Amino acid sequence: MKGDRITDVVEFFRLRQQDRNAVREVRGREPDRFRWRSAVGKLTSSAGRMHGKERFRIEEPVREVVLDLGDDTLQREVVLDARRFNVDLDRGEVLPHHTMGDLRRYAFLVGADMRVIERYVSLPVDFLAPIDTAGCAVVARAMSNHHRRRAQKILLDLPDPDSGIALRQHEHYLSKRAYKDNDLADRWNLLGRKLLGIGR
Question: Which of 80, 96, 127, 142 is deepest in the core (most CB within 10 A)?
Answer without folding.
Answer: 80
